[in-house]
Every structure is written in structure tokens, then in C-alpha cells.
């Protein structure tokens, strides 16, 4: 069965074709970063319009790479939410219309479920059950994953998501968009510990997170004096240390509490090198292992949506009932 995946929740247009027998046949992503850069963030109206422009060329490219035609598509999975309403509507309309034209089922997929399952696309996939750390621009969650479709939320951010904190802090430091990678790059030139930032909720005794105070602490430090370029790098390094320390500590606690040795990391912040280093070290100490999606599948893409849709169909989900459903939640 070949499932087409469509992702258009924010500023990346992703299209992919996944075969349940042969794996990923093709995938392509167009990022709108250059278009939004001048505005310092994503402009929703521009994002929607660009998704319209990109979807058909991306579909044609993916089909050509896969050596397939439209007629080979057996089902279409698309990101139904969460995300920017207009951007989501473009992907949903495209997917539903194409499904109707080809007379194949269309399946709305929860964006986070796509991220969550993306490490399963790797050759070296994690075994069930596992703990998943979902760290994106909109969410920071720890989940226990028993199988596809069975997710238990163990803890999440009470305020800003980790990616959001990276983005907002980057803005405070006058870095460009997208903030997360820019801040991570600056942090590499700085030394953590020269500024002292808190480790929010590190010892809270639960698996909740809070990152908004950290951003305020950076603001206070930045307002105290005019920062030199090297001080900015030190502050960025300390911020990255604070966020990654809390994320790593709580991920290990979740694994310990549930006696699981596999940790899956998904979402854009999962691309952060320092986070990966910390998680690898911390999990090795308890005899565990961390599984990451391929770097190109950490941020938004159609492959994770195609894969998620395919798994749901394999589990016998009947997509017809979902027609017209816009927002879905993982069960
Ligand atoms: O998963 P994603 O592509 O989109 C959402 O679903 O949100 O994640 C985007 C988030 C942004 O906040 C971005 O700044 C952050 O991931 N991000 C990073 C890095 N790469 C992307 N944050 C820290 N370090 C990075 N290397
Ligand atoms: Zn995402």
C-alpha cells in the first residue's frame, strides 16, 4: 500500500510517498524560511499562499523520484492540526480533493503523532514500548508509547514550549528567524556558566516543564547592560545549557519511573546538538539508548505524516468517517 503524506501546518510544505512494504519511496520539503525572514517570523497569510504554490510541483517531484504516477497512490494522509488554520486548510483541501479525484481514502493525521512516530522510519527503529520526548515549537511533552495509537501523556510544559523559548530568546538577543538554530549556533561560540540562569522545575518531583521564566531571566540579563557579542554568546550558551539540562533530566526520570530503556526524541528541538549529547550521555548512564529521526525528518516533513497514516490504515482505521474532521487528537 502506497500512502501519500501532505504536511502544511506552518512554514514547510512537505510531500512524501511511503510504501508499507518498501518504506519511504520519496520525500520533498520546501521551506519558506527565506520568505518569512524579512518579517522576523512566520506571516500566516503568506505561508498559506506559498503552500498552494508548492504542493503540485512537490507532488510531481516526489512521484517522479519514486518512479510512480498518481494512479499508484492508495491513500492520502494529511496534517489536520495543530498549526496555522489557513496553512492547514490548504493541505487539507489539496489532500481531500486529490483523494476524491483518485477515489482513494483521505486520512487526517495529528501533527504531533507524525513527529512522535518519525524515528520509526529509521532502519534502526526503537522497539515498543518507549518513552518519547516531543520537543517542537508548540509542544514539550513526555509520553509513554505502547504501540501506534496508544500514547500516555506523562508531563508537558506548563507555559512556553522548548522551541518557543529558543525562538523568543533568540529574538531578545537580536538573532534572526528561525531563532532556535540561530541561538544554538551562537551558543557554540559561548561559554555556559558565565551568566547564571535557573533550571526551571528541575527538582519539581514531576515531569512538568516551564520555560517562560527562563526567557524573562535572559531579558533581565540583557537589560542590565549593553551586551558585547561574546557576552551574547555566553548568555546563549547558558540558556541552551539550562533548557537541555532540564529536558535530559526529566526524560531520564520518565524512563526510570516506567522501567524503559528506549527514549525517542522527536520535533524540531530534537535537532539541537547539545540536547542530543546530553540525552545520549544521560541515557547511557542508566543503560538505555536514545533514538532520533534522521536529521532531515526532525523538522516538519511529509514523510512522518505518510508513515503515520500508513500505520493507522494498517491497524484497520476506517478513514471515511474522518472525512471533514479538521482537528484530531492522538488517542
Ligand atoms: O517540529 P518543528 O519543525 O515545528 C513545530 O511543529 O513546531 O519545530 C520547530 C521548532 C522551532 O521552535 C525551532 O526554533 C526549533 O524547533 N529548532 C531548534 C533547532 N532546530 C529547530 N531549537 C534548538 N536548536 C536547534 N538546532
Ligand atoms: Zn512540527
Automatic annotation (TrEMBL):
One of its GO terms (molecular function) is iron ion binding. GO terms for biological process: tRNA threonylcarbamoyladenosine modification. Gene3D superfamilies: 3.30.420.40. It comes from the Bacteria. Signal peptide: none annotated. Its EC number is 2.3.1.234. Its cofactor is Fe(2+). Residues 24-307 form the Gcp-like domain. Binds 1 Fe(2+) ion per subunit. It is found in: Cytoplasm. One of its GO terms (cellular component) is cytoplasm. It catalyses: L-threonylcarbamoyladenylate + adenosine(37) in tRNA = N(6)-L-threonylcarbamoyladenosine(37) in tRNA + AMP + H(+). Keywords: Acyltransferase, Cytoplasm, Iron, Metal-binding, Transferase, tRNA processing. Fe cation binds at residues 111, 115, 300. It holds the Pfam family TsaD. Substrate binds at residues 134-138, 167, 180, 272. It is an enzyme of class 2 (transferase). Belongs to the KAE1 / TsaD family. Required for the formation of a threonylcarbamoyl group on adenosine at position 37 (t(6)A37) in tRNAs that read codons beginning with adenine. Is involved in the transfer of the threonylcarbamoyl moiety of threonylcarbamoyl-AMP (TC-AMP) to the N6 group of A37, together with TsaE and TsaB. TsaD likely plays a direct catalytic role in this reaction. PANTHER family: TRNA N6-ADENOSINE THREONYLCARBAMOYLTRANSFERASE, TRNA N6-ADENOSINE THREONYLCARBAMOYLTRANSFERASE, MITOCHONDRIAL. This is tRNA N6-adenosine threonylcarbamoyltransferase. It comes from Sulfuritalea hydrogenivorans sk43H. The lineage of its organism: Bacteria, Pseudomonadati, Pseudomonadota, Betaproteobacteria, Nitrosomonadales.
